[in-house]
Amino acid sequence: MGRPDLNLADAGVAGATLLPDAAALDALYGGLPTAALLDIAIHTLFPGRIALVSSFGTEAAVMLHLVAQVDRHTPILFVDTDKLFGETLRYRDRLVARLGLTDVRTLTPDPARLAAADPHGILWAGNPDLCCKIRKVEPLAVGIDGFDAWISGRKRFQAATRATIPVFETEAARVKVNPLAAWMPADLAAYAAAHDLPPHPLVEQGYRSVGCMPCTSRVAEGEDDRAGRWRGTEKIECGIHFGLEADGSGI
Q1: For the chain, is the Cβ count within 10 Å smaller at the N or the C terminus?
Q2: Does residue 71 contact residue 99 with C-beta atoms inside 8 Å?
Q3: Listed residue (168, 200, 245) closest to 89, CA to CA
Q4: C-alpha span between 94 and 84 (Å, rounded)
Q5: Which one, of 154, 127, 149, 168, lies nearest residue 244 by Cα?
Q6: What is the pLDDT of residue 243?
């Protein structure tokens, strides 16, 4: 697919060291087909300075495949919280091999932080916000350092809190790209079927969104896909989409 005419000056791209204006990028490129959008983001707007953050969750295969089709050497950041389902880790390995991804970086919590704040591994039960901060937000903040932009797999249909997300947005000192923002479940299913992408093994067991094992439950018909995350609490996000600062704050 050919690239449309690029008008980078309109997006505030005056030089390689300047961060483009996310609102301008959204106006210029937000309506492009997903593959063309990813091509521009990876090769033109942020060459060598963009990564895909993936949980290898229930809908991850579509985004991973799209990125692999554009450039399978794109860095993939994966946070292993040490509380994930074994099925997720095995699914990650299967997709990496299937898609030929060459730069998957596994990020892990700081052992000293865990020893001090969660020595028994049950912080999730009493303080899930702090647990997510230590096990997910902080490792990602360290791993994403040096990138000017990152690709997210969020979609508007997933939850009320995501209903208005743009394709391009500014987060702290980076641009976040949400190429699948407007995709619906039927779009994901059709794409996965067309490319014979394997589903996450927990989907058939009733999990529509998968995070850490202690804080993930099955979702009933009619519930938001993310209703099974942190069930019984007011928590609805892990914190990585609230802003990644160097110290992991923003949760």
Answers
A1: N
A2: no
A3: 200
A4: 16
A5: 149
A6: 52
Q: What is the pLDDT of residues 137-165, one digit of tens each?
A: 999 999 999 999 999 998 888 777 788 89
Alpha-carbon distance 30 to 21, whole Å? Answer: 13
Rounded to an integer, what distance in angstroms lies between the CA atom of residue 31 and that of residue 33? Answer: 7
Q: Write down the pTM of the prediction.
A: 0.85
What is d(CA 183, CA 9) in angstroms, rounded to the nearest whole number?
29
List, edge to edge, every strand of the sheet that includes 149-151. Answer: 104-107, 76-79, 50-53, 149-151, 174-177, 168-171
> Catalytic site residue 131?
no
Q: How far does CA 96 lie from the centroid of its chain?
A: 16
71: left (phi over 0), alpha (psi -120 to 50) or beta: beta
Q: Is there a contact between 158 and 226 (Cβ–Cβ < 8 Å)? A: yes
